[in-house]
Design a protein that fits this description.
This protein has about 180 residues and is an all-alpha fold. It has 2 domains: about 1-55, no CATH class; about 55-184, Alpha Horseshoe (Serine Threonine Protein Phosphatase 5, Tetratricopeptide repeat), CATH 1.25.40.420. Helices cover about 60% and strands about 0% of the residues. The longest helix has 20 residues, at about 1-20. It is elongated. It starts with a helix and ends in a 28-residue tail after the last helix. Residues about 1-5 and about 175-180 have low confidence and may be disordered.
Length: about 180
């Protein structure tokens, strides 16, 4: 009898996971990601993560409340994924700064960890000088400031760019907007 109950629970979990897999939207993708991670629903977690990666900017722009639910480790993981779909690195920078500012006392401690995965060298020189370098969260954090200097150096010494290649100078895998949209 006990074994029968265990199988019924496993079937119920499979049914719930299947429902979640088929119900991922911009309005619920972070909740689905969190539930799937909490209950070790691996397939569901992979689908939710892929959805967030493909729709990152739409999520951050149109569903800020959902975007702000990301944990620091989740956001770091997404930022470090080369499948992340973003139109520009500066917009990504703005989203990270917005996420930190949303709960500054609790999130400021994560700024250097997050900024390490923002590919600042892919910003334009103008964006680096006029905007990024004026951001107080960057100016007041030594690690972030070092990343800014690295990005500026990358732009200034063009002939050395092949020698200055790092993970932060690599273009994302899916840079085509058509690859980045599979909104339900």
């Amino acid at each position: 009898m006990l074994l029968k109950c265990v199988y019924q629970v496993a079937d119920a979990v499979k049914l719930c996971a299947s429902f979640l897999n088929n119900s991922i939207t911009l309005e619920n993708c972070i909740d689905v990601l969190n539930i799937s991670e909490l209950y070790s629903l691996d397939t569901c977690s992979v689908l939710a993560r892929s959805f967030v990666l493909a729709n990152f900017e739409n999520l951050a722009d149109q569903h800020k409340d959902e975007f702000m639910k990301l944990t620091a480790s989740q956001l770091t993981s997404l930022l470090s994924d080369s499948a992340l779909c973003v139109a520009s690195e500066y917009r990504l920078f703005e989203h990270v700064i917005g996420w930190v500012r949303h709960d500054l006392p609790a999130r400021e401690q994560h700024i250097s960890q997050l900024m390490f995965h923002v590919r600042l060298p892919l910003c334009t020189g103008e964006e680096l000088v006029d905007r990024v370098s004026r951001e107080p969260l960057v100016k007041n954090n030594t690690d972030c400031y070092r990343l800014l200097v690295e990005a500026k150096d990358y732009h200034i010494v063009v002939y050395k760019q092949p020698l200055l290649q790092t993970a932060r100078t690599q273009v994302y895998k899916s840079i085509s907007p058509s690859v980045c949209k599979f909104i339900k």
